[in-house]
Amino acid sequence: MTEPHELFSALGDRTRLGVLTALARSGPATATELAATIPVTRQAISKHLAALDAVGLVTRHQEGREVRYQFEADALDTVASWATDTAGTWDRRLDRLRRSLE
Amino acid sequence: MTEPHELFSALGDRTRLGVLTALARSGPATATELAATIPVTRQAISKHLAALDAVGLVTRHQEGREVRYQFEADALDTVASWATDTAGTWDRRLDRLRRSLE
DNA sequence: AGGAAACGCAACTAACGAGTTGCACTAAGG
DNA sequence: CCTTAGTGCAACTCGTTAGTTGCGTTTCCT
Predict the structure, then answer these.
(1) pLDDT tens digits for B68-85?
(2) For residue A34, with 0-12 CB atoms within 10 Å meaning exposed, 13-18 middle and 19 or more buried, which class applies?
(3) N or C: which end of chain B has fewer CB within 10 A?
(4) Does A1 contact B at CB distance below 8 Å?
């Protein structure tokens, strides 16, 4: 559903990637909690979290008046498998080329 | 050297990702050859190739008057290892949490 | 030699995206 | 209740970027 380039685009910003790794290392957190660590506004972080949520890298969990965001490790499987697949395609191409030269 | 978010940013565009996968599948090619397949201008593709070259996803090979670009599979190792590492960090966090609940 | 093919550079447009500020709304707590 | 903390929404600025067109340069080929 989520196209690869959308995933990569979501990971392609410095502060947004910082938000994601913060969630991966320190566990679920809210936008205001993250804003205390990262030197940008809460609204900016909120936008980043919305972007990460849109591609499934993060899930929303409303608890009363606050919203806690959780890192979704499964979404990175798509990234890892795309990378290995594409690199693998190249390797197989090299093999075919090598064999055709014998 | 190349920061992860730069790599992801380079992969975060639809047509640019198309250029890269075309090189991975069909082997080295020039900008004009790629422009015959992908519905954008040669200059646009040339810019994309420059962006991919800047992060090491592709290498330039000048041959007379034409420049042939080659896919570099090794650059994707960084992508794959980052994904598995980050997911792994999360898994270890889950393990610690699970153990602390016993 | 001279045309055609391949490329690079520069200027420009249009759109997107990151970040901010301001305000309204809702839920929690004394 | 009334205050305060946590979000969301909207409008705005500013930098970046994808894409185009135009032109000049170099290389190949007949």
Answers:
(1) 999 999 999 999 999 999
(2) buried
(3) C
(4) no
Cβ atoms A69, A31 nearer than 8 A = yes
Tell me the average pLDDT across B3-31: 97
- pLDDT tens digits, one per residue of A12-50: 999 999 999 999 999 999 999 999 999 999 999 999 999
Give the single-character DSSP code of B43. Answer: H
CA of A9 to C1' of D10 (A): 25
- Where are the domains positioned within chain B? 4-72
Whole-angstrom distance, CA of residue A46 vs CA of residue B55: 29
Is A3 near chain B, with CB under 8 Å? Answer: yes
Class of domain A4-72: mainly alpha
